[in-house]
Amino acid sequence: MAVLTPATVLLASRDEQLDSLLARRRVAAHLGGLRTAGALPGPPSGVSPRDVALVCDDTDATARLLDLGVPVVHLRSGHGPGAGPDGALCRVHRPGWLPGPPPSGERATGTLAPARLTRNRARAGTLLLLSAWDVPEDEADAFAAGPLRPLAAEAVRRTGRCAVVCDTRLAPVRAALDGLDGVRVTRAAETDADALHAGADVFLAAPTMGALTLAQARRSPLVFLPPLGAAQRDLARQVAGVSPVATAHDPADPALWAPPGPPGPPPWSTLDPAADDLRGAQRVARTLRQLSLAPL
Predict the structure, then answer these.
(1) What CA–CA distance (Å, rounded) separates 68 from 48?
(2) Which residues have a Cβ under 8 Å from the Cβ of 12 and sit 6 or more positions away?
(3) For the whole prediction, is pTM greater than 0.90?
(4) Which of 62, 75, 85, 253 could join 55 in a cystine, given CB atoms 3.0 to 4.6 angstroms apart?
């Protein structure tokens, strides 16, 4: 009697893009019971007819997998213009509370929340989540050489330590923070940013979809770093029209380090509860399960 080879979910993302990396990890957390593989298949003989794939943003990987006959859920996880490739099931990470409709031809996922929504009761330190993806090099390097070090130094002074996580342009970030006690710099692909956030008391982050939804899903305070690049500036503008988020222009501003408490409103209380759908990652994972049972 023939034995069916279990389906494998092939996972791919742009690991040098923070949003893409976080999206892949958050969906993968809901694929328990399915085999997963992080590497793309080699020759066509290495692909099972029952394999399916999740590809976050990497259109070349999606095209390659489609050519091999693998059904692909293509998740565009960042903010900005674009569209998924023809032949894939195209999704876009977009919370329902953001103004405006999703791009034509893509289905919005809702918020891609982390699998664990609670934060540690004993939190300490600062998480500084930086993204230089699709940012002009001179702009990213100017931020690293200018505002970054004073922000990290103040974070250490106020909260005891600062974990700096960035997706790309790691060398200028390390150079800018060299010799600063209490600061640890890591690459996003080698770090669990969601877990670091659960243990941090203060959260400073570039205006990216993955960082925004991390704070929003956990109802935790967020301070935006000065936006870098057109996509970050546009996302920060859209968020400002819905929920107030401070921007870290002046490290000495005490409001950055002491989030408002009672009697003020809690973070994210201005969002419409009906549009606050945190099940985006589960929804994408469910689509992958369905494809593994009945591929297109």
Answers:
(1) 10
(2) 24, 38, 40, 53, 54, 55, 56, 58, 61, 65
(3) yes
(4) 62
How far apart (Å, rounded) are the C-alpha atoms in residues 8 and 49?
Answer: 10
**CA R_g for the chain:** 20
Of 62, 60, 50, 51, the closest CA to residue 89 belongs to 62
Vertex 191: Cα angle to 202 and 271 (nearest 5): 45
pLDDT tens-digit map of 12-69: 999 999 999 999 999 999 998 888 887 665 554 466 666 899 999 999 999 999 998 8
Q: Which two tokens stand for residue 21?
A: 């990396």
Q: What is the Cα–Cα distance from 197 to 174, expressed in whole angstroms? A: 21
| CA pair distance 257, 166, nearest whole angstrom | 21
Contact 7, 292 (CB under 8 A): yes
Per the CB < 8 A criterion, the answer to whether 35 and 8 are in contact is yes
In this predicted model, what pLDDT tens digit does every residue of 162-217 receive, in sequence order? 999 999 999 999 999 999 999 999 999 999 999 999 999 999 999 999 999 999 99
What are the structure tokens assigned to 216, written together? 């929003």
Give the pair of three-digit tokens for residue 20.
């893409």
